[in-house]
Amino acid sequence: MLVIKCPDCSHSFVWTDTMPLKGSCPTNGCSWTYDVHVELKKSVLEKTSSKNDSFRCPHCKNQIKAKWTTCDQCGCFVAGSKSFKKTHIFLYVAIILVLLSFVYRYRF
Ligand SMILES: [Zn+2]
Ligand SMILES: [Zn+2]
Fold first, then answer.
1. pLDDT tens readout for residues 58-78
2. Which ligand lies nearest the alpha carbon of 11?
3. Residue 45 above 90 pLDDT?
4. What is the 48 CA–ligand 2 centroid distance (Å)?
5. C-beta atoms surrounding 105 within 10 Å
6. Least distant ligand from the CA of 33
7. Which ligand is nearest to the Cα of residue 23, counting in written order?
8. Is residue 14's pLDDT more than 90?
9. In this structure, what are the phi and psi dihedrals at residue 76, rounded to the nearest 5 degrees?
10. Does the pLDDT at position 106 exceed 80?
11. Nearest ligand to the C-alpha of residue 64?
12. 52 Cα: distance to centroid of ligand 1 (angstroms)
């Protein structure tokens, strides 16, 4: 069983084992012909490409090499599914340092 999307009329139909390997689109007035082998290849390619797509910058959706990296396109630091602007990291560090200094001041 395979779902085939017709590029001509953009209707999807289900191909089953009882149907010929090559045939025409079941939509009335559509003359597009399908080839199951070609469609199978397409669906396999789609599945593998969506796997590779798992590493994407959450900020600009640019494809990145690893889960923990900096994005080539927008320069964001990507940590898993989160992205940080480099300037924001410095801001966070500064805030943490200020908070720590407060904690030390009130302890001693
Ligand atoms: Zn069609
Ligand atoms: Zn990015």
1. 888 888 888 888 888 898 888
2. 1
3. no
4. 22
5. 8
6. 1
7. 1
8. yes
9. -75, 150
10. no
11. 2
12. 30
